[in-house]
Amino acid sequence: MHATGIAKALRAVASFVSWHRRAVGALLAASAVLLLAEALTTPLPTVPVVVLQRAAAAGEPLTAADLGARNLPPDAVPDDALTSVDDAVGQTLAVPAAAGTILQPALLARATTAAKGRAVVPIVVADDELRRLLSPGELISLVSAHGESPEIVTGDARVVALPSTEGSGALRAAASTDRGALLVDVPASSAAVVALLGQGGQLSVILGRTNG
Fold this sequence. Notes:
- The protein folds into 3 domains: 42 residues; 63 residues, Type Iii Antifreeze Protein Isoform Hplc 12 (Alpha-Beta Complex), CATH 3.90.1210; 90 residues.
- 27% of the residues lie in helices and 25% in strands.
- The chain contains 3 helices and 9 strands.
- A hairpin with a 6-residue loop joins strand 6 and strand 7.
- The chain starts with a helix and ends in a 5-residue tail after the last strand.
């Protein structure tokens, strides 16, 4: 009888544990379903950005039909991305861009507007072959051959606009086309020297940015 009582007690304990285990399992499963449902119904944070609706070439003015707004996760958005279509309408691309490209100030040509600490200066590049290698948005370095040895005037320049016989305004180089003038964005501290040497054809161009 004693052994039988112990066996019954053990079965009761086992049954109790098994029931509670099932109950806990059901509770955990229900909690998981609730958490999943909440995750699916809670929208992820997004930020609005301006994107190109189609591929566009460098130097091409943007219209409202070329642009669209899209909401993207913050991690996928550049810090300086444009957030309003109105900010991009009428702007001109400095570089070719594919459809879906998020627009940023660096992709837009602003020949008459420079960021703080920068200046836009016309320089002369007489070599036709060299000019054909350049495109708006291209990073370049400017070197002076004036003197006994070449000297880097600035290693932080960007082509803003190339000579054009069509149109006018911000993208038109501020010197005659036949002299091979183009507009470059340079540090304000170098602007005077770049203007003095560049407009006299005394600057050479290195493709890419250098330290100097």
